[in-house]
Amino acid sequence: MAAQLDALGASAYFTSPNPTRINPTKSVFFGTKLPSTNSTMPKLKSLAISSSLHIKNGDIEVPRKLMDDVEFLNSTLPTLKSEVFSTAGDGQTSVEINVLQGEMLEPGGGFPELFDESKIIKNKSEEIEPYLNGRCIYLVGMMGSGKTTVGKVLAEALGYSFCDCDTLIEETVGENTVAEIFKSYGESFFRDTETEVLHKLSMMHQLVVSTGGGAVIRPVNWRHMRKGISVWLDVPLEALARRITAVGTDSRPLLHHESRNSYSKTMKRLSALFEERGEAYTNADVRVSLENIAAKIGSEDVCNLTPTVIAIEVLLQICKFIKK
Ligand SMILES: Nc1ncnc2c1ncn2[C@@H]1O[C@H](COP(=O)(O)OP(=O)(O)O)[C@@H](O)[C@H]1O
Ligand SMILES: O=C(O)C1=C[C@@H](OP(=O)(O)O)[C@@H](O)[C@H](O)C1
């Protein structure tokens, strides 16, 4: 099903490659300037333009937030139909107007239909990779925030190696699991080994590193992570508790409990930990908020966000950080 879309613009000013795919749930406008009076304007909810376009605000305010949406929307915008109308026939100076008709979202969000995730992540990685100069990317965030899952996707896209700190700690200590290390040697021994591992990693290049949720609490760890770019995966606690309840708490000693009502216990424990650590996460160079991604692409639940969509946002935010 398709929806009529308010989208027009002067094609002469389109940048290459032209945007050819439009999201019908958002009105999209392409062009060099926003006309101050236009019947489509009251319906205009979102803007997809390319960065090289010159925007004259006229009567229309273009909030910064909207501008931030641009890169994402511009990447892949499904369009059912595109037609160009020209005023040349009327003997006027030629102005071409593009009217685009978008495709409807699949029920439940339909990211794969709307965004060609694999293409976007490939393009974005290729664009960013030269600017990284081999710097490692450190993913920080609470337990269950997706550091490992998203980290693997990111590493693959960038042609980097993926490293999991917990695994390296297990290898260093010679114990099978983090839970066993906590049990046999205690948390402070675990933290010392974590720092040792981060120190070693800080001398390496082209790695995406999934750190443990508590790595942010020691300032010395930040000194190591500053050698690369740190990214905080900011996930609502409810989503973390749901994910962790689904897989169980056996591998996460700080959350482990033998309770049947594991969601509420996990939620309580996560809230207490976040209370202690929330501020430390803000030390990261870049914050990737799942709530912001969901709002950006019109998804109601952060649980619908695929690891690739999150990895794309990581790349976008790193790009902004590098350009600063
Ligand atoms: N975007 C996602 N969508 C659905 N499930 C996810 C997503 N990211 C992570 N998960 C799941 O949540 C759990 C915790 O993820 P993980 O990557 O191990 O987190 P972390 O390394 O931060 O502790 C895993 O079971 C994983 O499959
Ligand atoms: O938050 C924490 O203090 C911890 C998080 C765990 O890693 P994940 O964040 O990968 O679960 C692991 O390092 C250890 O259980 C301690």
UniProtKB/TrEMBL annotation:
It comes from Castilleja foliolosa. PROSITE patterns: SHIKIMATE_KINASE (PS01128). Keywords: Amino-acid biosynthesis, Aromatic amino acid biosynthesis, ATP-binding, Kinase, Nucleotide-binding, Transferase. GO terms for biological process: amino acid biosynthetic process; aromatic amino acid family biosynthetic process. It catalyses: shikimate + ATP = 3-phosphoshikimate + ADP + H(+). It comes from the Eukaryota. This is shikimate kinase. The keyword Transferase applies. The keyword Aminoacyl-tRNA synthetase does not apply. The gene is SK2. InterPro entries: HSP70_peptide-bd_sf (IPR029047), Hsp_70_fam (IPR013126), P-loop_NTPase (IPR027417), Shikimate/glucono_kinase (IPR031322), Shikimate_kinase/TSH1 (IPR000623), Shikimate_kinase_CS (IPR023000). GO terms for molecular function: ATP binding; shikimate kinase activity. Catalyzes the specific phosphorylation of the 3-hydroxyl group of shikimic acid using ATP as a cosubstrate.
